[in-house]
Design goal:
heterotrimer; A mainly alpha; B mainly alpha; C alpha+beta; A: 4 helices; C: alpha+beta; Immunoglobulin-like; 5-stranded mixed β-sheet; about 35% helix; elongated; oxidoreductase activity (chain C); transmembrane (chain C); Cupredoxin (chain C)
Chain lengths: ~130, ~850, ~280
């Protein structure tokens, strides 16, 4: 990362493209949670309404939960590396330099992936604990 | 690939060096600049005062109006409590009581809680971001006038005994079958306000993303700005499902299309889903901004930076997402499959975690700081005590088996008031005490404030704590009276006494707020010793917001950049002047806030008032089935809005770039993604697409919920016409984008031909779509009704799109839209991207789904 | 759960009070971080996981299949139409505004509604379940002790929502069977002169257009079935007691007692009223 620079349009766009990924990463964890949640709710609702095989759907959704957790884990790992706290020792990223912003976005994405993982585990519990459509 | 427009790029040194900033500004230059700036930002005097659009004026009116609505709704609550003080009371009739509680809930939610967030944000956000104003001041003013007209209309109905009376969530069939205009007043009046809310949300998001001071990267913006961003985003996804629901509901009320009528294939559950997909995020839309106020007060009180800034950002963003997975916990007793209830129970527990993190981050900040107890902090402490209580009962209610008992009882009434008082009322009052010096340059009374706090706090608990027990002992909510001897009598009496103690507290607060303070001394600047930019404001007040827009490199610039204040006052920073006598603010890049443009912002005007009045007419007349005046009023509203846009937005500037201070030359015009207008359209259309998606959800919901949807032997839409419509929308899109590209390439005549052809093709597409369903009988069954609803939705959007295309054509003919200055057509083609996708989806649902299902 | 909640509330608020009021100096940042991670993540995750597993495991209980008897309840504005379907029955036993259940057996209650949404709730016996027009929901109840409990509508359903209640009586199975048999029988004929006059009035005033009294020519199905109204615990869906006085008050003041109710107020002479009330009170 460079220090602050003159605001030329091409550089601005390049930098935006680079941090675009970071901004996206912030929401990626929660988005995986949301996709998993919608899949669980939608599929179970249709299955129960139309009398499909609920047990098969439950197993399928549990596999999806596993996949969601792997996805969130990957996001978390990438974000952890971006935060880079082990090397900088900076927990708060409160300065106004470009690298602080970069680390901060990593930190936020990392924390959000923790919350998303907890969310996915919680939402999977009913699949394990509740049997049928009743 | 789009050719560049040839507009200049930013030129000159950035960021400013210390030497540049240290160089003094000569005194005479300072004075000349200040007087020009003052003239440009002067607030209109006398009766023209209501034409003001500046955020400080509009924000103040907005806050006061919301406060008045809140007090009226509070008085209704007192009448409710009086009626319930003793069993079998006959102070008010059942009908009047039902109107009162419906209006109490509706007004508190739609006329106080959400507008208050927008009001406070419009008032404070530019200050916190060192901006002169919001990016679209006239839009704020328009939103305010819409809110005022709609709010007076809705709340006024109670004085004519015509108020809605089916509860604030208006469950059909009770609400759809209700006689009299009550339900229509609720639907149309509040839809009108919801549209205004979305407008404010768009403005706040764009303001946060594009109007920060140079150097204020995302990792150092004030936490309040983060919350505004999250809450604005939530409004965009939460309000549209309700608007879609209102649309269906009003079609049922006005034309008897049976969306929620089970005898003709409809389903009342669809309303419950759409309402609560809005309703639960809405609780967090109310709660998060108030917590944001706490996030501004606590560092000041602890005299240190907030601890766990990233954690709070996480908690805001996480809560924002999770809050969309909770809505069914309002529907635990509707007989949905247990496993579905389980998902929502789980998500409702999960959302506790980010909320808890928020509270512990505050705790940690206080721990690591040296606390100086102040009046705002007293209210924040009260908020915490009340909110944690509401949160813990929330944890219990999220467990479905507990909710089966407590649902729809006074336990819920207690729970929701604990969360809303702790999560909204108390923090907002803390905010009033904290920010009052910023707004009025006076302090509120410490003594009265303490009285108000203790009266409100003890009254509140006296009123609502017993209600937990009343509910657990079986008293349902929304009963106008109750039989004696069930153990509820004395609990209700205590609650009523508590309500009046609380009312005394509010009266004290309001008196302190409005009592004349002429003789009171003005405050010194930054009376609380805060660290964020709003405390740079001048005492006595100046309408310009900031004298010059500073270069910010820290989270608490007033603590960490010691020379900033004097340089700011001297006009050392950006935009210290108004050479042309026009209002301007700085537009910066989204992530790192590098200056990219000097944006002209609009000044005082009557047009927003007229536009709001006519828009109000278009919504209010249909309540009484006066459709002709409604259509005339709607047409006039469109004329006003076109006039407003034509005369005040995307004006061709006198020079392509100008000196923004510190040697930096910035462009004065931007089109496409570089312009704030483009962002506003993008964000608006995201909300619009959500509303459309809700309608499509409705279609599939009917399929899931009913074994015969579409019913056997039902007439379908005409496939040939749908294919024609799809083709027309695709061609229209190509013509619109083609016009944009040709115009940018300097080929103005072909671009104009495209702009003549496109509206004709779009109108043909809309006509074909409506033609495809015109033979269906929407009142006979929900299947033809939902097809009609989708077709109308697309047709109305096409109508708006056609007006926009013609606006661009006129712009091209009269020199407002040129190859160099082409913001309008960028915005219009963005609008059409969204509408084209919606139209194609609608064609697919109408044409293909009956086969597929 | 309550104790836990009180404890957590005290913990958080105690800490807040301590931080803001009592303590003079600043803590180390490291402690602050521990508070944030421990209090913000670890503690809630543990507590919530335990609660969630517990809650989810109980979630399907209210909808377990019953032991045979099915009671079908339809919510009306503002009363309850009740049908008993013993196992294998071809036709139901019709009654209104009172639910009787055998103790020790799980009874399925099938719920639906006439026009608007209601919610069926007997707080002492279990949770609530909403009643929708055009759809059937189910809740099963397992009363453990004989007794009379109060039930009521929990979902706002219009002007007289407050007065839509009923008595729920849990009985020993043998008593229940006896009661059901008598409930299935036709109405007893009037036993006194006053009651006989009341029966004639019942017909001449047109009460039978809405109310059924089985075994007579009154077969209306708009309002509650009155075949055994004299044996019920309450009158007007939990509004009054079934006494001659209350019956007279009810017939002459429906609009006051139950705003917007469909039953008109009858402007009768006092002795006519007491005759009619005597007839109804005698319908044991």
């Amino acid at each position: 990362m460079t220090d602050e620079h003159q605001p030329r349009r091409d550089e601005d766009q390049k930098e935006f493209a680079e941090e675009h990924a970071s901004l996206f990463k912030i929401t990626l964890g929660p988005l995986i949670w949301a996709a998993h949640f919608v899949a669980c709710y939608g599929l179970v609702a249709v299955t129960c309404a139309k009398g499909w095989d609920i047990d098969a759907v439950r197993s399928g959704l549990l596999v999806a939960s596993g996949a969601a957790l792997v996805g969130i884990g990957w996001v978390g790992w990438v974000a952890w590396r971006q935060w880079n706290v082990a090397q900088t020792g900076d927990f708060v990223n409160r300065c106004g330099r470009a690298e602080d912003r970069h680390h901060f976005l990593g930190h936020a994405a990392f924390l959000l992936s923790i919350i998303s993982a907890i969310g996915v585990v919680f939402v999977s519990l009913p699949l394990v604990l509740i049997g049928g459509c009743q | 690939m789009t050719r560049p427009s040839g507009l200049p790029q930013p030129e000159g040194p950035y960021p400013p060096t210390d030497e540049m900033l240290a160089e003094p500004v000569p005194r005479d230059v300072q004075e000349a600049q200040a007087s020009r700036l003052r003239a440009a930002w002067e607030t209109p005097k006398g009766w023209r005062y209501i034409t003001a659009v500046n955020n400080t004026e509009v924000g103040k009116w907005y806050c006061l109006t919301a406060l008045v609505f809140m007090l009226l709704a509070g008085v209704m609550a007192l009448i409710i409590r009086l009626q319930l003080a003793v069993p079998e009371n006959d102070l008010v009739s059942a009908d009047r009581f039902n109107q009162l509680f419906t209006m109490h809930g509706s007004a508190m939610m739609f006329l106080f809680a959400v507008p208050m967030f927008e009001a406070v944000s419009i008032l404070l956000l530019p200050g916190m971001l060192g901006a002169r104003d919001m990016p679209f001041p006239r839009l704020s003013a328009f939103g305010y006038w819409c809110f005022l007209i709609g709010g007076v209309f809705v709340i006024g109905s109670i004085f004519f005994d015509a108020a809605p009376r089916a509860g604030w969530f208006m469950y059909p069939p009770l609400a759809t079958k209700d006689e009299g205009p009550g339900s229509d007043i609720w639907l149309l009046g509040l839809s009108f306000i919801e549209v205004a809310s979305i407008a404010a949300a768009v403005e706040l998001i764009v303001g946060t993303l594009k109007c920060r001071p140079p150097g204020m990267r995302v990792n150092i913006m004030p936490l309040y700005a983060w919350y505004v961003l999250v809450v604005g985003g939530m409004i965009l996804f939460a309000f549209p499902p309700l608007i879609a629901g209102d649309f269906l509901f009003e079609l049922e009320r006005s034309f008897d299309w049976p969306f929620f009528d089970p005898t003709r294939g409809g389903d009342p559950m669809l309303w419950q889903h759409l309402f609560w997909i809005f309703g639960h995020p809405e609780v967090y839309i109310i709660f998060l901004p108030s917590i944001a106020i706490a996030a501004m007060v606590i560092p000041t009180v602890a005299r240190r930076p907030i601890f766990g800034y990233s954690w709070i950002v996480l908690s805001a963003v996480g809560t924002g997402f999770l809050s969309f997975g909770l809505w069914v916990h309002h529907m635990f007793t509707t007989g949905l499959p247990s496993i579905s209830l389980g998902f929502f129970s789980a998500a409702s527990e999960a959302v506790v975690i980010p909320t808890g993190i928020q509270i512990f981050a505050f705790l940690a900040t206080l721990m690591a700081g040296r606390v100086k107890m102040t009046l705002p902090m007293l209210w924040i402490s009260g908020a915490l005590a009340i909110f944690t209580m509401g949160g813990l009962t929330g944890v219990m209610l999220a467990l479905a088996p507990f909710d089966f008992q407590a649902h729809d009882t006074y336990f819920i009434v207690a729970h929701l008031h604990y969360t809303l008082f702790g999560g909204m009322v108390f923090p907002v009052i803390a905010g009033v005490y904290y920010f009052f010096p910023f707004i009025q340059k006076k302090l509120m009374s410490d003594r009265l404030g303490k009285w108000a706090f203790w009266l409100t706090f003890s009254g509140f608990n006296l009123c609502f704590l017993p209600m937990h027990l009343t509910g657990l002992w079986g008293m349902p909510r929304r009963v106008y009276t109750y039989p004696g001897g069930l153990g509820w009598d004395w609990l209700n009496l205590i609650s009523t006494v508590g309500a009046f103690v609380m009312a005394a507290g509010f009266a004290t607060f309001v008196w302190d707020l409005i009592r004349p303070k002429h003789r009171q001394a003005q405050i010194p600047r930054n009376p609380w010793d805060g660290g964020t930019l709003e405390w740079t404001h001048d005492v006595p007040e100046e309408a310009w917001g900031v004298r010059s827009i500073p270069h910010v490199t820290t989270r608490y610039p007033l603590w960490d950049q010691p020379d900033m204040l004097t340089r700011l006052d001297a006009g050392r920073y950006y935009l210290p002047d108004a050479q042309e006598g026009k209002r301007e603010t700085l537009v910066t890049s989204v992530i790192d806030a590098e200056p990219v443009q000097v944006q002209r912002v609009t000044g005082p005007t009557w047009i927003t008032l007229w536009a709001a009045a006519f828009t109000g007419g278009a919504f209010i007349f249909p309540t009484f089935s006066w459709y002709t005046p409604a259509i005339i009023s709607g047409a006039l509203a469109i004329c006003c809005i076109i006039w407003w846009l034509w005369t005040a937005t995307a004006q061709v500037p006198e020079a392509d770039s100008k000196d923004a201070g510190l040697g930096l030359r910035l462009p004065t015009y931007a089109a496409g993604p570089a312009s704030v207008g483009w962002w506003a359209i993008w964000i608006t259309m995201l909300g619009d697409a959500t509303a459309f998606a809700s309608l499509v959800f409705g279609f599939f919901f009917y399929w899931t919920a009913s074994p015969d949807f579409p019913p056997d032997g039902a007439a379908h839409a005409v496939p040939g016409l749908i294919a024609l419509a799809a083709l027309a929308f695709a061609v229209n899109w190509a013509l619109t984008v083609g016009a944009r590209q040709l115009n940018r390439a300097g080929r103005v005549t072909p671009a104009r031909i495209c702009l003549i052809a496109a509206p004709a093709v779009a109108a043909a597409g809309a006509a074909a779509l409506v033609g495809a369903v015109i033979d269906l009988e929407p009142a006979s069954h929900v299947y033809p009704a939902i097809l009609w609803a989708l077709a109308i939705w697309i047709a109305v959007h096409s109508g708006a799109g056609v007006i926009m295309q013609l606006y661009c054509l006129a712009g091209s003919l009269f020199g407002k839209l040129t190859p160099r200055y082409d913001a309008d057509i960028w915005n219009v083609s963005l609008f059409w991207h969204f509408v084209t996708i919606s139209a194609l989806v609608a064609c697919a649902v109408l044409g293909l789904m009956p086969e597929a299902l | 759960m309550l104790v836990g909640a009180v404890f957590l509330w005290l913990l958080v608020n105690g800490a807040f009070y301590y931080m803001s009021r009592v303590r003079p100096g600043a803590f180390d940042q490291r402690y602050a971080r521990h508070i944030l991670i421990g209090g913000g993540i670890v503690l809630p995750v543990v507590v919530l996981t335990v609660l969630l597993v517990w809650g989810l495991s109980m979630l399907p209980d209210p909808r377990r299949p019953g032991d045979g008897l099915v009671v079908r309840v339809t919510g009306e504005q503002w009363w309850w139409r009740v049908e008993y379907w013993p196992e294998g029955a071809d036709a139901p036993v019709l009654t209104a505004n009172e639910i009787r259940l055998p103790v020790g057996q799980r009874t399925e209650i099938h719920l639906t509604s006439d026009k608007v949404i209601h919610s069926f709730w007997i707080p002492a016996l279990g949770g609530k379940m909403d009643m929708f027009p055009g759809r059937e929901t189910m809740i099963s109840l397992l009363p453990e002790r004989p007794g009379t409990y109060r039930g009521q509508c929990a979902e706002f359903c219009g002007a007289s929502h407050a007065w839509m209640a009923f008595a729920a009586v849990a009985m020993e199975p043998a008593d229940f069977d006896r009661w059901l048999a008598s409930e299935a029988a036709d109405a007893v004929p009037p036993s006194t002169d006053a009651a006989a006059r009341g029966a004639r009035l019942f017909r001449s005033e047109g009460c039978g257009a809405c109310h059924a009294v089985r075994g007579t020519e009154n077969v209306g199905q708009v309002g509650p079935d009155l075949t055994h109204v004299g044996s019920r615990q309450t009158l007007g869906a939990g509004r009054l007691k079934v006494t001659i006085d209350d019956l007279s008050i009810w017939i002459s003041h429906t609009d006051v007692l139950k705003p917007e109710v469909k039953m008109p107020t009858y402007d009768l002479e006092p002795d006519q009223l007491s005759d009619l009330a005597a007839y109804l009170e005698g319908l044991k």
